[in-house]
Model the fold of this input.
Amino acid sequence: MNIRLAKGSSQPLYIQLFEQLKELIEQGILPEDYKLPTIRELGRELNVNNITVVNAYKLLEDHKLIYKKVGSGSYVLPIEENLIINNAVSNEDDRQEYDYNTEEGYIDFATASPDPRLFPMTDFKKAINDVIERDGGNAFMYHDSRGYLPLRSSIADYLSKKEIEVGPEDVYIISGAQQGIDIIAKALLTNGDYVFVESPTYTGAAAVFKSRGARIVEIPLQSDGPDMNELEKLLQVIKPKFMYTMPNFQNPTGCSYSERKKKHLLLLCKKYKLLIVEDDYSGDLSYKEKPATPLKSYDNADSVIYIKSFSKIFMPGLRVAFLIIPEPIKKMIESAKYMTDISTSGFMQRVLDLYLNRNILDEHIRYMKKEYGLRYFEAVRAAKKYLRGALFSQPYGGLNLWIRLPEGIDSSKLYERCKKNMVLITPGTVFLKGEEGEQHMRISFSGVDVLDITKGIAIVGNTIEEMKKESRIGGA
Done:
């Protein structure tokens, strides 16, 4: 490798070795996947202590220039341009996902917020009064950063119904799923770390990871979950800090992992010491008889951080969610949570605890599944009828349809045309760069009346037909 170390120099030998190896890698003299000499071999060849080589290799690994294969050695990492990297937040579209109410008059398929008319206001008012009467001023005091202990116990019982066996000491209350994502990023990520995400993925999560300096590597989604061959190929050359996933009714695609892929993913976790962040975005909203099973329920090796929010089935403005944290990183997450906001609203925690103990939440989930199920099936029916030439898979759960547009229809242009017709959609360019983004749109039906779902999708379909006609005339 033509390395020359100046032993009389004031610069440490391991720095000299690091810089020369770095230059050889960056110039392509040492190609990607090239196996470096063992520590003993290089130490003997250069007549230096093994510690010198160890420190140089450690610096190369820290700079994302080499990677280790357990039991095999150190290899040159592929250059970034050869990875599916940093596409998860599209720079071509300045629209982002937000769950807020838009101006009145629009049929809004762009946000996935619940319909406020479905909120359980009567039960909620009673719960508020009961908590105040029972606890008085104590209801408004700070709580342990981990959360109100009775609520953590109630959540542990709630999770046992999902075949997730944890104790209250494993549950951390947070102010919404987005805060959970942010806390995980603060605790685990440093500049230059790799994070694996599904492609496409939730842009709010990807933006948080990028804000911490992470390099995002995309794993293509298939109809039943990630491309496992691509995932394992990448795991052989990159050690990410974690992989962010939505295994049930994924946002934006609605895709759910098959049981086989869930189990396969956890096998890869053991093999490559991979940590998973599971965002249970809308797993409660299955429109089949069989409920969706969280990835965490298969996790017997403590490989999954589980995030669960009640925002899609309860009231999003209450900002109450929770994390289940693997033992090795509990202290790090707890510290990051404390530095973020000390503690989540104790009053809202007490109200939610009452809901869980009285089984009101279970009743409300059944009600929401029925209401959203009506909207889901109407959206599917209308899409089949009015979106001629479009393709989509039926997710049978969640709040979205991910639709491939007819050939020649650009989702960004469709968005602008539909907006003029008082209908909002989410163009695929929010989630994906280039042609793939242009060819897709997301329809979110949770906040739209059944009659407006039919009317709105008919307007989208008519707009597509107008664009097709103009394209034919322009090409004639």
Confidence is low (pLDDT under 50) at residues 90-95. Residues 107-118+363-475 form a domain with the Aspartate Aminotransferase, domain 1 fold (CATH 3.90.1150.10). The chain has three domains: 13-81, 107-118+363-475, 133-361.
